[in-house]
UniProtKB/TrEMBL annotation:
Similarity comment text for this entry: Belongs to the AzlC family.
Xref: Pfam families: AzlC
UniProt entry tagged with the keyword Transmembrane helix: yes
This protein's GO CC annotations: plasma membrane
Domain of life: Bacteria
Subcellular location: Cell membrane
Transmembrane parts of this sequence: 12-35, 133-154, 160-178, 187-204, 210-228
GO term, biological process aspect, one: L-valine transmembrane transport
InterPro entries cross-referenced by the UniProt entry: Brnchd-chn_aa_trnsp_permease
Bilayer disposition of the protein: Multi-pass membrane protein
Keywords from the named record: Cell membrane, Membrane, Transmembrane, Transmembrane helix, Transport
Protein name (record): Inner membrane protein YgaZ
Length: 239
């Protein structure tokens, strides 16, 4: 009985810890729902986007790819590359969560986002699966419900406002990128390189629509891994 009380308490603690995430997710989810409406997809498609993908940046990117006429394969591959970091985040959390979690692994892995990972990774000591699931459930509910509300609002709000929501994608990426640019000149270099490579590929028009972004991600990621690998080798030599 005590375990049950403790587990329920941990779940509630997880929900409470998610409040900052919920506050941050709702306006972005609303923006995604509104953009989904203006893109022309159905409310069911918009709901399934958030319910099954649950990856903000990738969902905005997918909408953009849909608008330019990219194929399903290009959208899926681009989303996979953008979200590849989740493998590393999940591996890190796997050693931090205590107790038997085998049957819960699919749910916990699905709920991993940059924000939830940040909360969980900075929490001192081990964390329980109940706390993790409480945190992720509340964030997930906010994201999905915000998307549906945004879609419905997209049919009510004036067109000038819904058209202006397109800036939400760029605002979101800027908010993610700027803090990292302040920390590292290498991140600034890679960001500028990404923009330059993608612009060049669009200008040359050698690849089908949507593949320019995929090629940019692969090329710049390779260059970035080489830069950081050289830095690690130098640090090892100094030690």
């Amino acid at each position: 009985m005590q375990n049950g009380v403790k587990n329920n308490g941990d779940f509630i603690l997880g929900v409470k810890a998610s409040i900052p995430l919920v506050i941050g997710y709702l306006p972005i989810a609303l923006a995604f729902g509104i953009l989904s409406k203006t893109t022309g997809i159905s409310i069911l498609d918009s709901f399934l986007f958030s319910a099954l993908v649950f990856a903000g940046a990738s969902q905005f990117m997918a909408l953009n790819l849909i608008l330019i006429g990219a194929g399903f394969g290009e959208i899926i591959l681009t989303t996979l590359l953008v979200n590849f970091r989740h493998f590393l985040m999940s591996a890190s959390l796997a050693v931090k969560i205590e107790g038997k979690i085998k049957r819960w692994i699919p749910f916990i892995a699905f709920g991993v986002t940059d924000e939830s990972f940040s909360v969980l990774s900075f929490r001192e000591g081990k964390i329980t699966k109940e706390f993790t699931l409480g945190l992720q459930f509340a964030a997930y509910f906010a994201w999905v419900s915000g998307t549906v509300i945004g879609y419905v609002a997209g049919g009510i709000l004036p067109k000038i406002i819904t058209d202006g929501m397109g800036i939400a994608l760029y605002a979101m990426f800027t908010a993610i990128l700027v803090p990292e640019l302040k920390k590292s000149s290498k991140v600034l270099f890679l960001a500028l390189l990404s923009g330059g490579v993608n612009t060049l590929l669009n200008y040359l028009n050698l690849l089908p629509k949507g593949w320019n972004m995929i090629a940019t991600i692969i090329l710049v990621s390779f260059i970035g891994s080489c830069i950081y690998e050289e830095e690690e080798v130098k640090l090892c030599e100094q030690q």
